[in-house]
Design goal:
This protein is of the alpha+beta class and about 475 residues long. It folds into four domains: about 100 residues, no CATH class; about 120 residues, PAS domain (Beta-Lactamase); about 70 residues; about 140 residues, Heat Shock Protein 90 (2-Layer Sandwich), CATH 3.30.565.10. Helices cover about 55% and strands about 15% of the residues. The protein is built from eleven helices and 13 strands. Strands 1, 2, 3, 4, 5 and 6 form a six-stranded antiparallel β-sheet that branches. Strands 8-10-11-13-12 form a five-stranded mixed β-sheet. The longest helix has about 50 residues. The radius of gyration is 27 Å and the shape is flat. The chain starts with 6 loop residues before the first helix and ends in a 6-residue tail after the last strand.
Length: about 475
Amino acid sequence: MRLVPRGMGATLFLAFSIAALPALVAAGFLLEWQAREALEAELTRRVESLAVGASAWIHPSTWPLILGLKAGDEESRTARYVRSSLERIRSEGEVERIALWTADGRLIVDTSLALPIGVAAPRATLLRRELEIVRSGRTASTPLFRTSSGKLMKIGLAPVPGERGGDAPTGVLLVEAPSSSMEAIAAMRRTLVVAGAVGWLLVLAVALWLSRRLTARVTQLAGAARRIARGDLESPVPALGEDQIGLLAGALDRMRDAVRVRERHLRSMVGGVAHEIRNPLGGLILNAEMLSRDTDLPPKQRAKAGRILAEALRLERVVSEFLTYARPERPQEARVDLAAALKESAESAREGLGWSGELVVAADRRRVHCDEDHLRQVLLNLLRNAMQACGGEGTVRARVSRKGNDVELSVEDSGGGILEGDRLKVFEPFYSGKPEGAGLGLAIAKRLCDLGGIAIRVDDSELGGARFRLTFRHHPGE
């Protein structure tokens, strides 16, 4: 039996063969790139979240004492306490090292180095750009880098908050973690090159079948990589056979599961931190409320107690938002009346803030598939954000419309708007343009939308402020 066709068949075979090899190799590199991007993004979230969690482990009033340690204090009770706390967090978080520096780059504690307190921290010069970001009150992370021993690493940095919420950061917490998953990705890339060469030799017999099957599997694997990049670590990567692509899918699924386990440990630690904060906070709120109502106290003292109560309640909201962001529930999709949810959320936001501006809700009855609790949380956060952007007065408009086959919901305001360069930053955790904000409202909205497959974006509003738009996927038959 002839394996190589003649004439036009040979020409088509050669043309397809020449095109097939680079296509297969390109597909392998695309999958490797997407997997690398997804895993690096997850590693970035992990090291930054762990750095933030470590900064919350110690009470803010204790930081000035800790950051005031000097050379010779290495064996003091404070230094030993900080060293043991960071070592415990490092062990539970399964990272390489955790270090505490002052804001100007002096070393206080490093779990992997026994250097005197107050010396210039190693790598401080190399991390100038990241330190500038942290000194502005935001988290930062380095690109992946390779150590002298050949290990791929990433460093996450988080600010140590000042004694008061508005103070500039007084120190920096660094978390360094390895990226062993990237080594597997690199090895898998080489395997894919070999698989491409083998596939090229077999094009004559299985060209059409292989191209269709390969396209379908690449699409599935790319979709799995995108889900991981969005933070969905619960949905397994589909089993795609026993060949090289199937091996890559299996490797990606094992890496997803490993990241999920590590994230679960991290979330447990975050939950423990929040629990430790909430216990004394509940007593503080109760006593402040009692003092603010105590008629035996002078009015001035009752007013002070009222201010303490207000700040304690604000802190309780921040802790709740932090837990919502760190541990969102998996979406449970159902058919939801979008107009009803929007109207109820708008009234709840207005009453919760005591807002007196103009609120316009224009929504026909539209049903969409989504998690109703997640949707109401997203709408509440967007509407509160819009009302706060307007100040005491102004206009907030929310409406539902159909865009082609999809349904779009928009929330816009007449506030100051959002600069084009800040439109991606507003969805980052702890980024806030309001002095009293925790920077989690829009981050929570973005994460819940990503989990539910809802597109969210921001642009300019006709009212003069910002407009947030949600696009819901079309479901046939609706």
